[in-house]
Design goal:
Helix 2 runs antiparallel to helix 6, helix 3 runs antiparallel to helix 4 and helix 5 packs across helix 6. The chain has helices at residues 3-13, 15-38, 43-78, 89-105, 109-116, 124-147, 151-180. The radius of gyration is 19 Å and the shape is elongated. The chain contains seven helices and no strands. The N and C termini lie far apart (63 Å). It is mainly alpha-helical and 181 residues long.
């Protein structure tokens, strides 16, 4: 087995955690961006809330993945089932965390770039929407190509579910801003 085949096989073993962490990272960070934008918060507040969410939720997701994988292994051992030697709770948790951080950064890129370039990037939210949609497409493509399923279905499924979550966050931000004002 070549090194490429080993890497591909190993990635397939942890695809579930990558998709789980990546989707959640992109959706929850975008939800913070959308909610804060819908509420009319400044770009600085979007960045602060976005990065606070990114780190806290990313760690929470990674730890949750580790603990649930470890619990599943422990239960299987207790039931006398053979332990899956390829499954590693540490790698599961790390994969979830890394995917969450990498893809969770995407919705913040336009705001972060704007902060570094002194406010010269117009339409930050529109760029955030576009970049997040691209992240969803990439996740859908990756998921479907590794799982050997329909690429169109993988992309549409990811886009639709992500758009529902993001739209809900934006609507809540708008409604709460109006209710509080």
């Amino acid at each position: 087995m070549s090194i490429i085949d080993k890497i591909k096989s190993h990635f397939e073993d942890y695809l579930r955690e990558f998709v789980y962490g990546g989707i959640d990272g992109a959706i929850t960070t975008f939800a913070v961006v959308a909610g804060a934008t819908g509420a009319g918060f400044s770009a600085n507040v979007v960045i602060i809330l976005g990065f606070a969410n990114l780190i806290a939720d990313g760690l929470s997701m990674g730890v949750g993945s580790y603990l649930s994988s470890k619990s599943e292994l422990e239960v299987n051992v207790k039931k006398g089932k053979q332990e899956d030697e390829d499954a590693s709770p540490v790698i599961n948790g790390a994969t979830t965390f890394v995917a969450f951080i990498v893809l969770g950064l995407v919705p913040l890129l336009s705001y972060t770039a704007d902060a570094f370039y002194s406010g010269n990037i117009p339409h930050q939210f529109a760029f955030s929407v576009g970049l997040t949609l691209i992240a969803f497409v990439i996740i859908g493509l990756l998921k479907s190509s590794v799982a050997k399923t329909s690429r169109l279905r993988g992309i549409l499924e990811t886009l639709i579910l992500g758009a529902i979550a993001a739209g809900a966050a934006y609507a809540v931000g708008v409604l709460l801003e109006r209710a509080v004002s």
